[in-house]
């Protein structure tokens, strides 16, 4: 089927579906609440979500597990931020963010990060088994953030590799904020961080 927006394709999809996005500029915020794979047909050089020229920055919310956004040569050029956050006490597991370019410069609506995995309350669950790989990030408070916020659960066994980050206050950070959870077993290597 053919849809006029990425969100309409998400709304119509069933868990496990693959959504292939054609070249172009898409200016809608996205809410991903199903286990889907969303890739571009031609990569981030020709597939844009948000538009800096018109100060149209977007929020991409992922609120379930087993979501893939992008892939090697199949990512997106995103003006805004990506937030992976627990929905209805679901764990944040098996999310892959791969091959995207994320711009946050000049966006006053930012949450303080370009790409964030966050537990936001006591009813959350683990942040585990997620992959962030091959992305390029420009100008954010935190480039890539894993954050337990008031949660008793753990951040473990996540992989952050091969990303390039420019002009952020902190390139990559894992932390507990008022949390009893543990952080362990995560793999962070091969990332290229500049001016952070």
N to C succession of SSEs: HEEEEEEEEEEEEEEEEEEEEEEE
List the total number of helices: 1
Radius of gyration: 16 Å
Give the termini distance in whole angstroms. Answer: 43 Å
The parts where pLDDT drops under 50 for at least 5 residues are none
Number of strands: 23
> Major beta sheet, specifics?
12 strands, parallel
- State the helical fraction: under 10%
Beta-strand percent range? 35-45%
Shape: globular
Estimate the mean pLDDT confidence: 89
**Protein structure class:** mainly beta
Structure, described:
It is a single chain. The chain has 196 residues and is mainly β. The chain has one helix at 6-12; strands at 18-21, 24-26, 30-32, 37-40, 47-49, 58-62, 68-69, 77-85, 92-93, 96-98, 101-103, 113-119, 127-128, 131-133, 136-138, 142-149, 155-156, 159-161, 164-166, 170-177, 183-184, 187-189, 192-194. The strands form three sheets. Strands 2, 3, 5, 6, 8, 11, 12, 15, 16, 19, 20 and 23 form a twelve-stranded parallel β-sheet that branches. A seven-stranded parallel β-sheet has the order 1-4-7-10-14-18-22, with helices on one face. The chain is globular and about 45 Å long. The model has no long low-confidence stretch (mean pLDDT 89).
């Amino acid at each position: 089927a053919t849809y006029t927006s990425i969100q309409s394709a998400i709304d119509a999809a069933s868990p496990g579906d693959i959504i292939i996005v054609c070249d172009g500029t898409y200016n809608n915020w996205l809410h991903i609440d199903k286990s889907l794979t969303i890739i571009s047909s031609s990569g981030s050089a020709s597939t844009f979500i948000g538009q800096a020229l018109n100060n149209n920055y977007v929020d991409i919310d992922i609120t379930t597990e087993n979501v893939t956004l992008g892939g090697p040569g199949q990512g997106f050029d995103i003006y805004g931020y990506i937030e992976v956050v627990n929905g209805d006490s679901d764990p944040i597991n098996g999310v892959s963010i791969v091959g995207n370019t994320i711009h946050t410069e000049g966006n006053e609506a930012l949450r303080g990060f370009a790409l964030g995995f966050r537990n936001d309350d006591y009813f959350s669950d683990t942040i585990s088994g997620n992959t962030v790989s091959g992305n390029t990030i420009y100008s954010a408070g935190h480039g890539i953030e894993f954050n337990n916020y008031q949660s008793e659960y753990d951040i473990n066994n996540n992989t952050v590799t091969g990303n390039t980050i420019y002009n952020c206050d902190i390139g990559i950070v894992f932390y507990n904020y008022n949390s009893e959870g543990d952080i362990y077993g995560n793999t962070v290597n091969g990332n290229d961080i500049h001016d952070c």
